[in-house]
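Usage

Read records sequentially. Each one opens with the input sequence:
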Amino acid sequence: MGHWLASAADQQRKDWIKRFDARFWTVDFPRPMLASVVTSGPRGFRVECVFHKKNDLAGLIWESADRYDHPLLGYATSRDYRGSTLSFRWQSSGSLKPLDAVNGPVLTIEGRDAGGVAKSWYVRLWNYAVGTPADCRIVLDFDALSGGFLLPGEADPVWAADIDRMFVSLVPAAFDKTDVPLPGAVAATLELSEIACDGAGSTIRIGDAFVPPHGLRIANGYDDCYNLTPARLLRGMVQTGYADVIDHYVGMSHFPALAWDGAAFTVVGGIATPAAAWHADFLGRAKASGFEVIQSLSYELLDQYCPEGWKQRDADGYPAATGYTPQSTLLSPSSPTGMGWVNGGRGRLCTAGAGSGPARTLPDRRAVVVGRREQPAVRLRRLDARDVRGRDRPRAARDS
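and closes with the structure output:
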């Protein structure tokens, strides 16, 4: 099969999108907290967060350069935001620091000033809101935008001609910058809807290639794509010609529900709300695109989250270690509680995909199959999750 390594310069089919298109926002965060973002329509998305520590912080991110899409599908780098106005409706619930509070949500803008010197601006969103802290409309005119807590007295005008990225900081209601566990995990939800970008600088070019369906199949892992919207992920798969089956490794670090046991954060059973919301959306979109999804669970778990009694050990008592960074370990098949946790997760993944078509479990491979039709198991390739390349490649917690 002929192939070449495409670059953005090879984009032949192109389209235009509005800047701040809901599909292309991302989230990121430091462990042990979790978050996810899923689109709720062409002009909105929903962010789910679970906070575990007082200093947890999630970043809701828009980047001027596309670092994630295939070169034939990525949007063009556009750092000049002059001549554009972003508006949206903000609705928050749960344990989220409110907009009008000290340390409330701030839009951090990273770029350079008019002299080319690196600079960050901290735009207090409440200064541009009309409504209540939990339900308001926000309008950001990049030609008249200023950082600073109090305006106009502390105004720090934003130079919008050279912006690298921006992110909204989301912190728990009890946020106080101390590295201390909360009394228990707390959840928060943020919905941005009616997103609009207007003005002469409001559109950006995007690659729009469509590769004909081919015989190759695709594998991915949640630890590698947890920060993306499922809509963005499926767009990339479909438009690069993949079809029929997705082998999806649920991963080892971004899906488990956690609790503080007095010494460390450990798994407590169940799938965390952000991961459950992401997988439900992913499975639904995959079905609509004609895919059968193999959700693969393995005996791998992030070492720092794994109870000591669950770990495989050698004859000298040393725990299993995969060699990845951060370190993951392997669960022992002789641990009833560890195997109960794996089996429970498998069932919950079936529940997440209940609205996405027929589901089957393959207990000998610890996999869940959710898809558009039933197929004989012999048609599926070997489902050893250790062979799936979805691995945990942590991103630097630049947002905290």
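Summary fields computed downstream for this record:
- Residues 358-400 have pLDDT under 50 and may be disordered.
- Residues 336-352 form the longest helix (17 residues).
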